[in-house]
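Figure 2 data, in text form.
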Amino acid sequence: MRSYSRAIVRYPRLWSGTGTSLGVFEHERPLGHAVTRPARLAVGVVSAGRVGSVLGAALTRAGHTVVAASGISEASVRRAERLLPEVPLLPSDEVAARADLVLLALPDDTLATMVGGLAATGSFRAGQIVAHTSGAHGVDILRPATELGALPLALHPVMTFTGREEDLERMASCSVGVTATEGDEAAWNVGEALTVEMGAEPVRIPEATRALYHAALAHGANHLITLVADCAEMLRENGVGNAERLLGPLLSAALDNVLRHGDRALTGPVARGDTGTVRTHLRVLAERAPDVAPSYQTLARRTVVRARESGLLGADAAAEIGNVLDDGRDTR
């Protein structure tokens, strides 16, 4: 774990008291001195959606106080009642004005408008921490708050949220992509400390990498759901019962293997150079699942490249598979 001592010097108002709420400070403690811990912060959550409610509850569990939240939809109100009991629901500008830590848990495309609006209404002030949870953005989008003296952070939990209590327990096994102002080590440490307090593992994401980072996560997680749903649907529509039970062990093993072993986990007809099987797959997909055939071809082409680069597939076999995928020519 990185040293947090520079954050104490640079942002002294964020650190006070004694105790052991963050064990990461224990290695820095001089003999006979108490452990330094983050001050208890007044947290404002904008808004009480699935992510905001869960992170607000996690910060409450860490000893901070959620002083207000915003929520308009009926689902948000119910979620706040369940995860943030007795927290008043107020307009966004009032929530931000009351908080030491403003947590902006908003859709990617609405974040800039909200930040600009809150800055224009004087809801931000010097000394606040203003953090958003968007994966797609770094801290540049918080510039209106930064110009008013706030400390900007991007804290993106790398997990899916249901907005229920079990999400709190899942925080213990997830990472949070942390971005702070480049060169401001103390600010990075503040973001990491808050992440650790919520029970998660901080991972530094440079500002310039943020968009690619989010694209990689979306490609892996969101498109995986599409891929698995397509597979299950093909099986069900063609008379195979309990498709999810059939796929579960296979897909779980494949995911575990690739995370452990990378490209060496590749198996199947493309990795083996089995052109006949690939040709059959293309034919039956064209006949019975034409909507899925293009994604099969695209992923198979990418699999050829990875299998070739990792040494699993020879040059000749890769060329043969490529020909079959490109135009269906018989290479025999």
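Caption note: The chain has two domains: 5-205, 212-327.
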